Amino acid sequence: MSSTTAPPAGSASDTPAATVDTHCPYCALQCGMGLRPGAEGAAGGVEVVERTAFDVNRGALCGKGRTAPALLSSRVRLTEPLVRRRPGGPLEPAGWEEALDRVAEGLSKVRAAHGPDAVGVFGGGGLTNEKAYLLGKFARLALGTSQIDYNGRFCMSSAAAAHNKAFGLDRGLPFPLADVARTGCVILVGSNLAETMPPALRYLTELRERGGKLIVVDPRRTRTAEQADLHLAPRPGTDLALALGMLHLVVAEGRVDTGFVAARTTGWPEARAAAMAHWPELVERITGVPVPRLREAVALFCDASSSMVLTARGPEQQSKGTDTVGAWINLCLATGRAGRPLSGYGCLTGQGNGQGGREHGQKADQLPGYRRLDDPAAREHVARVWGVDPETLPGPGRSAYELLDALGRDVRALLLTGSNPVVSAPRAAHVEERIASLDFLAVCDVVLSETAALADVVLPVAQWAEETGTTTNLEGRVLLRRRAVAPPPGVRTDLEVLNALAARLGREKGFPTDPEEVFDELRRASAGGPADYSGITYRRIAEEDGVFWPCPEVPAVGEGAEPPLGPVGGTPAPDSSPGLPPGGAPGGTPAPHPGTPRLFLDRFATDDGRARFVPVAHRPSAEEPDAAYPLLLTTGRVLAQYQSGAQTRRVAELNDAAPGPFVQLHPRLAEKVGVAEGEPVAVVSRRGRAVAPARITPDIRPDTVFMPFHWPGAGRANTLTNPALDPTSRMPEFKVCAVRVEAAGEEHGEAAP
Ligand SMILES: Nc1nc2c(c(=O)[nH]1)N[C@H]1C(S)=C(S)[C@@H](COP(=O)(O)OP(=O)(O)OC[C@H]3O[C@@H](n4cnc5c(=O)[nH]c(N)nc54)[C@H](O)[C@@H]3O)O[C@H]1N2
Ligand SMILES: Nc1nc2c(c(=O)[nH]1)N[C@H]1C(S)=C(S)[C@@H](COP(=O)(O)OP(=O)(O)OC[C@H]3O[C@@H](n4cnc5c(=O)[nH]c(N)nc54)[C@H](O)[C@@H]3O)O[C@H]1N2
Ligand code: SF4
Ligand SMILES: [Mo]
């Protein structure tokens, strides 16, 4: 491993700087990279170098990761606080003292007038574990509010809910990515990872080189679908029926693994009955996938000696996302493809810390360690770590969209950090209006995002390469991002901001600014919880290149009379991967817990150790096409832009590659509408109207149009999307709504590429 010593703050050394091992600021793959500070002519003064030793990406990076240092340059970012000194006035530069005073005052005033729950906090799955943890603590302790949630609700919450129901524990992938290359068959449902996690494509290529099969389920023939042995292109919003149809065939063809079902699961009779109501011809009618293709998929999946189902946002971002993922899990359970080596269900988590960000308390119903806020034992444990009476901890609050929808009414002041909902929230025009109606808005960001532009105070914060912190990647592997350069003067870290605000709100103690100190507290708060980090230290992460949770601390012999708290909600299965001895060294200090790369091999994390089938049935999307809105809109991503685009639209190379929104539509539909390639086309839903250039391709179903959601303005996809929520996960239906499409003639959308 190369040297990892970071230069002290502000140091400008003449000697060539050492390479600092760290991870990409963007997606959940958390690719390893090296940073060489002080490189002449390099963007942001930092050069990215290959870090082949980190095995997830072995040095490979996508364009976003490769160009990430460009955002460190002060030309494109905020370097001083901004305040709006009068309502309707401009944002003006201010000193930190004034800005922080204004935030504390803005939040306190609303709290005094309307109670603590009138103050909200909105976080992000890109924030490090330390930030996410401290933000949750800040909301509950310094503000005393229950009203905190975050953008992860828009991301993997349906898969998380389904995971918890079926397995008693939610870790995106229950196995390392490397296992994907070694299984027999992968069904990839609604993931375009060739564009959203390019270095991960290697695992699918290796799979196929070894003779394994790849099935891709996507209404579009994407770059990922092009790799598949079998591409199923269902109508958006019908994955639930598709999975049920496959399970029906599994039963009909006698492919159920009855031994596994009897020994390791509960609830099969009800799930079986539900599946039997979804016979193949009915499923063909609902999904548009022909019965022979369905049979082919079942054969590929079941004939392999091991197989996996991996889902991403396609099936999850639906008002029935939880049931849909449940149906795919049922398929795995019925065929004995779970809790066994090289088999199982996994969710490809999205944001940089999409996994860790959902574990440590920035979620409305959650305490650190993936504990439940309504569990008395969990409240007791965390209150003890925080040194407060459990009675003082607020209860669960609203989910992300419900919180945004309540702004200006029940919730009148908001502290927002790590998200840009003006672009990324469903029914965005409404959300924008709600945000604008707040009594007070404070935003911490790196750049002046569309949401920050509406704030009363904007606090400029440091970013990935300028501060140390941990993230947990999509495999559940806790990683260390290391500080490589000093932040520019005028910029503070999120932890420093929380510390200063807490002090102004009367909490001088309990909000450390040193990330490692925060992490050590997080370890204690998570100890005994489902996501137990207590055995993980910065040192261990550095030495082992990441540690998979759960990883409880093993007490030294004779230490403390109290045994470590048992995990809440079931004991996670011990890892069964080779070469990791679970026991202690004979006669000496006990060996540390090795971490848990593979879950569920011996038992699931439910009380009885068995996985639970869920009896689910197909239901239509919240909005089905009708005469006025005869088509379906689905939304997603392109390779060169990230999320709301706040960061990547400011990187010239990426912006040149993907300069603006577009509407992807089939040639037959384009002809009917009367638009040619590149001409402006209007997409209209019950929420609003968006205009962007047409991109005509046979790679999409003729009944469906697709828009990426990375841009604000006329081409904003989320002007159109439906905030219908999944009843369990509270996930909005980003992936399906009814629209009509019109030629927009002279009407101009975003600049055509
Ligand atoms: N370049 C890039 N990479 C990213 C991100 C980014 O913004 N840009 N964001 C990161 C984050 S946070 C996330 S969550 C991940 C998301 O990663 P993905 O889930 O791969 O991304 P999406 O493009 O949202 O959706 C994937 C596919 O779902 C398909 N789809 C749409 N509707 C349906 C449906 O009803 N059923 C099925 N089966 N499929 C459907 C779309 O056509 C699309 O190809 O990417 C991460 N990586
Ligand atoms: N139509 C449609 N809408 C979607 C989706 C979809 O598929 N379709 N996908 C949804 C999904 S999966 C997601 S994850 C959301 C994401 O959407 P957003 O929540 O808007 O995510 P980002 O654009 O990543 O916003 C992160 C913001 O935090 C800032 N930032 C970066 N690093 C830091 C930091 O360290 N500290 C602070 N304080 N700020 C930082 C960035 O500059 C940026 O402004 O979008 C959702 N919206
Ligand atoms: S795939 Fe994800 S983590 Fe890897 S370089 Fe690209 S954005 Fe970064
Ligand atoms: Mo996401």
From TrEMBL:
<dbReference type="Pfam" id="PF04879">
    <property type="entry name" value="Molybdop_Fe4S4"/>
</dbReference>
<dbReference type="InterPro" id="IPR050123">
    <property type="entry name" value="Prok_molybdopt-oxidoreductase"/>
</dbReference>
<keyword id="KW-0004">4Fe-4S</keyword>
<feature type="domain" description="4Fe-4S Mo/W bis-MGD-type">
    <location>
        <begin position="17"/>
        <end position="74"/>
    </location>
</feature>
<feature type="region of interest" description="Disordered">
    <location>
        <begin position="558"/>
        <end position="597"/>
    </location>
</feature>
<dbReference type="InterPro" id="IPR006656">
    <property type="entry name" value="Mopterin_OxRdtase"/>
</dbReference>
<dbReference type="Pfam" id="PF01568">
    <property type="entry name" value="Molydop_binding"/>
</dbReference>
<keyword id="KW-0479">Metal-binding</keyword>
<dbReference type="InterPro" id="IPR006657">
    <property type="entry name" value="MoPterin_dinucl-bd_dom"/>
</dbReference>
<protein>
    <recommendedName>
        <fullName>4Fe-4S Mo/W bis-MGD-type domain-containing protein</fullName>
    </recommendedName>
</protein>
<dbReference type="InterPro" id="IPR009010">
    <property type="entry name" value="Asp_de-COase-like_dom_sf"/>
</dbReference>
<keyword id="KW-0408">Iron</keyword>
<keyword id="KW-0411">Iron-sulfur</keyword>
<dbReference type="InterPro" id="IPR006963">
    <property type="entry name" value="Mopterin_OxRdtase_4Fe-4S_dom"/>
</dbReference>
<dbReference type="Pfam" id="PF00384">
    <property type="entry name" value="Molybdopterin"/>
</dbReference>
<feature type="compositionally biased region" description="Pro residues">
    <location>
        <begin position="579"/>
        <end position="595"/>
    </location>
</feature>
